[in-house]
Design goal:
Structural class: alpha+beta
Distance between the termini: 53 Å
Shape: globular
Order of helices and strands: HHEEEEEEEE
Largest sheet: 4 strands, antiparallel
Number of helices: 2
Strand order of the largest sheet: 1-2-3-4
Number of domains: 1
Strand content: over 45%
């Protein structure tokens, strides 16, 4: 009897522990960005510069966020999973400056950095204009 009870409890714990946590998922990509601040303590969204559709169920957003009283530029990969939007990757790329032109940040889903506003375009690279800036964000999607 105890053996049956132990197996039943073990399976119950295993089942509950392996369920996907969708508390950070949302109805829209914008809500998903805002939700990671609430659920995971990531940067609070101040301004979304642009959201680019990569596919039917995937977008990339470039936004200004604030964390620890410091404003930075972030790039986030947001995917639709089971009808809900979820931030799968988000990366702080800092604030644009001449010193950061040769730097980039990489995740499993994208690589991003800053480029001079007057730089040429490339079909494989997405560029996002930053308001009131001499720089653009470039993104290479994987």
């Amino acid at each position: 009897m105890y053996r049956f009870f132990f197996i039943l409890m073990f399976l119950l714990i295993l089942t509950v522990g392996c369920q996907q946590n969708n508390s950070s998922s949302s109805n829209t990509p914008k809500e998903a960005l805002e939700q990671i601040h609430i659920d995971e303590g990531y940067a609070e969204v101040v301004d979304i510069y642009e959201t680019i559709e990569i596919g039917d169920d995937r977008v990339i957003s470039v936004y200004k966020g604030i964390i620890n009283n410091s404003e930075e530029i972030y790039v986030a990969n947001i995917e639709q999973v089971d009808g809900r939007w979820l931030v799968t990757d988000a990366q702080n790329i800092g604030m644009p400056s001449d010193d950061r032109l040769n730097q980039s940040s990489v995740t499993e889903k994208f690589k991003a950095g800053f480029v001079d506003k007057n730089s040429f375009s490339n079909d494989e690279i997405i560029t996002i204009d930053l308001s009131n800036s001499n720089f653009k964000v470039w993104i290479e999607v994987f």
